[in-house]
Structures are given as structure tokens and as C-alpha cells.
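Many introductory courses stop at the sequence. We go one step further.
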Amino acid sequence: NDIRPKLAQIIGVNDSDLHLGKSNFKCVLLRYEGKSANFGWHYDMEEWNCFRCLFLIQKNGNVAPFLYLDDSGSQVEIPLQTLGDGLVFQGTRTYHGVPNTNDPDTLRYMLGFQYYVG
């Protein structure tokens, strides 16, 4: 809950309205390893009022960026290069993915949390 006040500020809600999720994504470790490691373009399947926050906690080699499409359909790249780099987004409304790097030394571990408003 230490990150909750900052997340609430980022997404524009009152701190008291933001709660740690109840799904199997409440806390998760995402692991990307090897030259073919990727996560194809998708929307997340969760309630409309959920937000995901992801933080880079381990890395090696070429670390792929987080990609999403903005409101105009243009691809936006968010580099995650420094341990602790992170982002928060609404996965049900953000078309997003992670490309492969073709680097056999790629290692990217992301610690993720789900929060919901309401």
C-alpha cells in the first residue's frame, strides 16, 4: 500500500478509492527470457475499473520496451532500462504488448500489481 497514494495521484482518483486487486493478478512476476521472449498485442481481461502497475526488478541483455497504441492509433514505446522503472495503465482500455529482442541474453523480470477503483 505504500505505492497506492502515488498511483492514485497518477490516475487521478482519491487515495481512499484505490484498492489492491482481488484477482490472480493481485501480485505477479512476469518473466521474459531469451531471444524469442515477447508478449503479443492484447487487451487485458479484467474488470473495467482495474489498473496494472509493473516495475522492472531484474534485467540482462537487451530489454524490450513496453508498447501501446495511443488514442490516434500510433505506437508508443516506453523504455524500461533501469531497475525500478515502472508504469501504470488500464489494461482493458490500452492495447499493449512487448516485442521480442532477438537477443539470446535477454532477461526481463517485471513485478506487477493490480489495483481497482471503487
